[in-house]
Amino acid sequence: MRHILTPKVEEVKLFDRYTAKKPAIGTLYLTATHLIFVETSCNTRKETWMLHHLIATVEKLPLTAMGCPLHISCKNFHVAHFVISSERDCQNVHQSLVRLSQPGKVEELYAFLYNPKQDEDERRNGWGFIDSAMDFKRMGLPNEFWEMTDLNKNYELCSTYHSELGIPKTASKSTVFGSAKFRSRGRIPTLSYYHKESNAAICRCSQPLSGLSARCVEDEEMLQAISRANPKSTFMYVVDTKPKLNAMANRAAGKG
């Protein structure tokens, strides 16, 4: 990449700020995605990898008798203190890391520069790595309680859900569409995980548009159909994962 001024610096010291042991000596590499430090002062090839996008700050400290210090703090609380013998090399590494860790525009992110060694057909086939129908088949669907439906094949039911959805067999088409109208962005209660030995299911959905007291017969029928889909259980948990403050704000906006 054009931002890497010096891709390799040898005889770099890495200090351990928690102990007083001697610094590790090795070679520092800059790649398009990582800073890599490879120790040469030990029998085992110990490597330290730091992802550019995890770097929070890079500080070039004043020159000392040992060399030019470079202090790096990461967003995952990893801190590294390097000393580079050449001030010019240290300056180049510092400038490179600042540019690599703080891209000026989204097009400079590595995702836009990555060019895998694949032909066009292989790239297009990548969309087939995740097959929801095969995944549900692995879980045991369809069966006597659940079925796969293509009611969302044109994403008209819900634009953020998959085209194939797992719903209870007893839920009618009118129940599904009525529930979608009562749910934020049409995100009806639909199957995410099924345990075929116990018939236990985990379903996901958005909050209902209930406001203070509104109800929806179709949405209630949808939940009852989910409950009936597990004859081994007499109850169903409904869990709201939003923070309490968000839930209160949604209620004020007419949502559940």
Automatic annotation (TrEMBL):
Key words, A-Z: Hydrolase
One Gene Ontology MF term: phosphatidylinositol-3-phosphate phosphatase activity
Domain Myotubularin phosphatase, chain residue ranges per copy: 126-256
PROSITE patterns assigned to the protein according to its UniProt record, in alphabetical order: PPASE_MYOTUBULARIN
InterPro entries linked to this entry: Myotubularin (IPR030564), Myotubularin-like_Pase_dom (IPR010569), PH-GRAM_MTMR6-9 (IPR048994), PH-like_dom_sf (IPR011993), Prot-tyrosine_phosphatase-like (IPR029021)
Gene Ontology BP, a term: phosphatidylinositol dephosphorylation
Annotated SUPFAM superfamilies: (Phosphotyrosine protein) phosphatases II (SSF52799), PH domain-like (SSF50729)
GO cellular component: cytoplasm; nuclear envelope
Pfam families: Myotub-related (PF06602), PH-GRAM_MTMR6-like (PF21098)
Similarity remark: Belongs to the protein-tyrosine phosphatase family. Non-receptor class myotubularin subfamily.
The name this protein goes by in its record: Myotubularin phosphatase domain-containing protein
Native species: Coregonus suidteri
